[in-house]
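Students often ask why we bother predicting the structure of a whole assembly rather than each chain alone. The short answer is interfaces. A chain on its own may look different once its partners are present, and contacts between molecules only exist in the joint model. In this exercise we take two input lines together and write out one structure for the complete complex. Read the inputs first and try to guess which parts will touch.
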Amino acid sequence: MNEINPNSNRDLLPEPTIRRLPWYLAYVTLLHNNNVEYVSSTKIADELNVDSSQIAKDLSFLNIKGKTRIGYEVASLETALRDFLGFDQSHNAVMVGSGSLGAALISDSGLQRYGLKIVAGVDVNPDIIGSQIGGIPIYHVDRLKELVKKLNIRIGIVAVPVDSAQDVADTMVAAGIKGIWNFTPYRIRVRDGVVIANTSIYSHLALMYNRLGTLNR
Amino acid sequence: MNEINPNSNRDLLPEPTIRRLPWYLAYVTLLHNNNVEYVSSTKIADELNVDSSQIAKDLSFLNIKGKTRIGYEVASLETALRDFLGFDQSHNAVMVGSGSLGAALISDSGLQRYGLKIVAGVDVNPDIIGSQIGGIPIYHVDRLKELVKKLNIRIGIVAVPVDSAQDVADTMVAAGIKGIWNFTPYRIRVRDGVVIANTSIYSHLALMYNRLGTLNR
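Now the answer. The structure tokens for the assembled complex follow.
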């Protein structure tokens, strides 16, 4: 559901590894909350239905070693994963489009716990511009370049209607945004050097409807 | 970013096809709004960066034919795609967990335009139970089975803390829910016959941070 235009050779981990690391993090966080001290890759493998050699390989990218027969120290593994994934740093982002989904994402304080700090929103709707959503000020999109510079924004989240997705992305890139998180089903195209991550929630819905076999045809 | 336990051989389309169909829909909706009448698979291919023979193959699952040298009629293709994907039908769903993300998703009226109708929420927090979010009533989770039956709910959306994800999923399955849309990073396990779709927004974030090369290490 996700494609990336890599723009750096540094730390270019395989995408499937990056996808699995947050699963491990979720599981060790759960163990930590339950006061479990050590976990083996075999145990993680059983719980998450991932091959244990794959887990050892994925975790080898981190600067952490398990102990023979005991496994990984849970607290250290949790910290190492959060750090490695960038969830403990703060990445400033702008929300582009403050309609239903955009406003919902701005209001989701959970993103902040994963290192994403939405510091501003932009829109073209005069009824919204100048207001705040969840304490975040909404500006006219014409001020994007100024905001990107002033607020040290590198990531832009796109939650606009399909019609404007490409235009908005072009404006974002011109304003200096380096990473675009696209929540629209439109396939945004960007020049090399700009990262795109697509979260295709409507594709997931379509897949679920299809697999449930609930469609009348 | 998405795994499915298929439970039916009926209409078992390849997952990549189902993932691409909403892209085509987004694009033809855009064309329709711009009063374009016909579109060729070559044109769609150029715009979306998908091979044109792949597009023809994907669209062959639909009951629609393009005309030689003219292509597909845009309005008919849009209708056929929406219908095929189930976006024009109404699928009743319950939101499990009405914290930050859950409340945000309940408030996202966009989901309804894609056929998902959230008809109730359940929670364990006494401060929220009995209230409404975006006009949707929130009940105690103990009433889930009754709600599923009374409101004809087949889909449950999981937006609870990682600690409770598996327990909540077990409760949902016991209550008769057939499809689980998991927004937590926890790898929920379900018995055969229950469909799981994972929307791993935190994995997408991790991937973006990594590809942007903004991590301090």
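Check your guess against this: Residues 1-10 of chain A have pLDDT under 50 and may be disordered.
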